[in-house]
Amino acid sequence: MRFTYDDALRIGDILARAAQAEIMPRFRRLTDRQVREKSSRFDVVTNADEAAERAIAASLAAAFPAGLVVGEEAAAKDDTLIGKIATADLAFVLDPIDGTKNFVAGLPLFGVMVAATVRGEVVLGAVHDPVRRDTAFALRGEGAWMQGEGGARADLKVASAVPVAEMEAIIGTNFLPEPLRSTVNGNLSRVGVSSWLRCAAHEYRMAAAGHCHLLFYNKLMPWDHAAGWLLHREAGGHGAHFDGGAYRPTHLTGGIICAPDKASWRLARDALLGRVGQPS
């Protein structure tokens, strides 16, 4: 299936409607009973995540009846869903609230992400900000853009390449195995500035809009990265696994680094993954 600009806007409208109906009314109004741990205290789910996923999944199914919807919360209950992305003629990979820890804390840094895939290839990405009410879109081969609630559109373009020592980087090392975690942490001083927003939705939006140079992740659940990876790519960037391999939403290991171009990617990869004390 080939998605059009109008298809993208329809999907963006689905995300926006669900966000205003199910997410924002619960923002800063959650009770303790409405927040639950999943795999750990760092991995939580709320009533808002579940309600938004139900609403978005139902709307996507109505608009695209042939599509398989793979939502984060549904996949937590059915671990076979992720494997179906590779062969589905059309699938939607959905994160109803990315940055749930921020949402629970009352911080306005969370987003709604959906990627459309065709037999495992990401062909559309949409990342919606419920607070600002705007959506970043990407169509494979057709570029990336930001669209505001009133219809104003602005094309997205990654930052220009700079030396590693001048890069503004979003780097999450929390899920790296040892000794790689200690290696990367020891090399953080090689980049200009490093931070982490606890929200891939906003981090990918920042990188695609040119507000930072580098993204570095290890944990690769498809709802966290499929839409953002395409957004960054269509904004002109280069993203690949640590070994240089091409990213696919069915790859759950191997990490991912996103940089303005392939040369910058190589320099950043070597600087962060090289041993402390070695030249970068």
Percent in strands: 25-35%
Extended strand count: 14
Coarse structural class: alpha+beta
Low-confidence stretches: none
The percentage helix is: 25-40%
Going across the major beta sheet, what is the strand order? 3-4-5-6-7-8-9
Query: Secondary-structure element order, as H and E?
Result: HEEHEHHEHEEEEEEHEHEHEEH
Protein name: Putative inositol monophosphatase
GO molecular function: inositol monophosphate 1-phosphatase activity; metal ion binding
Family: Belongs to the inositol monophosphatase superfamily.
Cofactor: Mg(2+)
Index terms:
280 residues; D-Maltodextrin-Binding Protein, domain 2
Explain the overall architecture.
This protein has 280 residues and is an alpha+beta fold. The protein folds into 2 domains: 5-155, Fructose-1,6-Bisphosphatase, Chain A, domain 1, CATH 3.30.540; 164-273, D-Maltodextrin-Binding Protein, domain 2. The protein contains 9 helices and 14 strands. It has helices at 5-23, 47-63, 72-77, 81-84, 100-104, 180-187, 200-208, 222-234, 262-273, and strands at 35-40, 43-46, 68-71, 91-98, 111-118, 121-129, 134-139, 143-147, 153-155, 168-171, 193-195, 214-217, 238-240, 256-259. Strands 3-4-5-6-7-8-9 form a 7-stranded mixed sheet, with helices on both faces. The longest helix is centred in the N-terminal third of the chain and has 19 residues, at 5-23. The mean pLDDT is 95.
